[in-house]
Design goal:
The chain is of the alpha/beta class. The protein contains four helices and nine strands. The strands form two sheets. Strands 4-3-5-6-8-7-9 form a seven-stranded mixed sheet, with helices on one face. The longest helix is centred in the N-terminal third of the chain and has 11 residues.
């Protein structure tokens, strides 16, 4: 369970399982071949690498899903970045835009900020931090929004080229503007 101290959120659990509905929506776009940070309990793909069979010492290929353990996230992000010429990897991570590793690696991929708070399995509420999908192996320097309540087809139809802004309006009245 999460605990708040004077200036940060801290969780005793470092391996939050991706919600099935969120994964299904993203998988419909990418057709993942492997989950690179999984266990037999939470694997999202038939082929997966577990903590015991670490992805960090392997050459990656195919199209990979990655919801890394948050405790040592930086090493997994660096590995996904380093493997961008061999594989496409979609990373579900906190948008820690104040860190050096975010700017060194994530900003050189495709970044889709998640608009909404997905509720991970085992959680009562959504995580109290912004999340992003960082995609390595496709485009670079592209940013946009990923809306939890829209289908992939709807998102493609309304996607602007470089930047999308999620206006603070009700879900039924979404508008977009370019910045």
């Amino acid at each position: 369970m999460g605990n708040f101290d004077s200036n940060r959120f801290k969780s005793t659990n470092q391996s939050w399982e991706t919600p099935d509905d969120l994964f299904a929506k993203i998988n419909s776009e990418f057709n993942f071949t492997r989950d690179v940070c999984a266990s037999s309990v939470n694997a999202k793909c038939q082929n997966y690498w577990s903590e015991e069979d670490s992805c960090l010492d392997k050459v990656w290929d195919g199209v990979n899903w990655m919801n890394p353990p948050y405790k040592n996230m930086k090493q997994y992000i660096k590995k996904a970045f380093d493997q961008r010429n061999n594989a496409v990897t979609v990373c579900l991570i906190p948008a820690r835009t104040n860190t050096k590793w975010w700017h060194d690696w994530c900003m050189r991929g495709e970044v889709l900020f998640i608009c909404g708070r997905p509720k991970f399995k085992g959680c009562v509420h959504g995580l109290p931090q912004p999340l992003a999908l960082v995609i390595f192996g496709r485009k670079s320097g592209v940013m946009g929004s990923f809306f939890l309540w829209k289908s992939i087809k709807e998102q493609r139809a309304t996607c602007l080229t470089l930047w999308n802004v999620c206006d603070a309006v009700p879900f039924t009245d979404l508008s977009f503007q370019s910045i």
